[in-house]
Amino acid sequence: MKLIWLGHGSFRLEAAEAVILIDPWLTGNPSFPEDRHAEALDGATHVLLTHGHGDHITGVPDIAKDAGLPVYGMFDLMEKLDGVDANGFNKGGTVDLGGVAVTMVPASHSNTLNGEAAGAEVGYMLKAEGHTIYFSGDTTIMADMEWMGAYHEPDIGVLSAGGYFTMDMKAAAWAAARYFDFKTVIPMHYKTFPALEQDAEELKKGLKGVDVIEPEVLVAIEF
């Protein structure tokens, strides 16, 4: 299994028979080099979306159309995507994406597309190759994390931790320590803009004994 950061809240997951692009904001993403789009998209099989904000969905319809990729996400959001193979499901539902079991779980944020309500914002549990990844999406701390950690038992956490729009590093560390038993934590949704956290030192301080990995763009983290 390989997890590859595409900057901001965007990732590429290579597992089982799938190459899943999660919130692949490539065009206009200050954290992602414009000349490396082909590398990020190479061999992609699916697109998975957490919500419809521009820093997560911009360029996705074009990516899906050009590469013929199916897009998966919240039912209400998928209904608003025209001209793509949009597949909507809902919280608690599980879809099989090339051998990766993807279960939609709650997040606490907001969800609009072009200023219009687009259902609920969500996160995902992704299970494959003996690992379960909790991909938080954009969220703050929420009580739902208690049952999500107990029920799904994720060993890897990919957590929004930049502050301002989501929980910050200190809050992400508190939530991870209280509600989960992660072996590895990877921060996201940070460093992109000056208003966001620029490093993961507070996350590391709050998670002693957990492998906190600060990702580098297009550098694979292997499990």
Topology:
Elements: E1 2-5, E2 11-15, E3 18-22, H1 37-41, E4 46-48, H2 54-57, H3 60-67, E5 71-74, H4 75-78, E6 86-89, E7 94-97, E8 100-106, E9 112-113, E10 116-117, E11 122-128, E12 131-135, H5 144-152, E13 156-160, H6 169-179, E14 184-188, H7 201-206, E15 211-212, E16 220-222
Give the strand content. 25-35%
Ends distance = 5 Å
Give Rg in angstroms: 16 Å
**Strand order, largest beta sheet:** 6-5-4-3-2-1-16
Helix content: 10-25%
Number of strands: 16
User: Any idea what the CATH architecture is?
Assistant: 4-Layer Sandwich
Mean pLDDT: 97
Uncertain segments are: none
Shape assignment: globular
SS field, number of helical segments: 7
N-to-C series of helices and strands: EEEHEHHEHEEEEEEEHEHEHEE
CATH H-level superfamily title: Ribonuclease Z/Hydroxyacylglutathione hydrolase-like
Overall tally of domains: 1
Largest sheet: 7 strands, mixed
CATH topology: Metallo-beta-lactamase, Chain A
The first-level CATH class is given as Alpha Beta
Structural class: alpha/beta
What does this structure look like?
With 223 residues, the chain is an alpha/beta fold. It has a single domain (2-222), classed as 4-Layer Sandwich (Metallo-beta-lactamase, Chain A), CATH 3.60.15. The chain contains 7 helices and 16 strands. It has a 7-stranded mixed beta sheet with strand order 6-5-4-3-2-1-16. A 7-stranded mixed beta sheet has the order 7-8-11-12-13-14-15, with helices on one face. Helix 4 links the parallel strand 5 and strand 6 (86-89). It is globular and about 45 Å long. The model has no long low-confidence stretch (mean pLDDT 97).
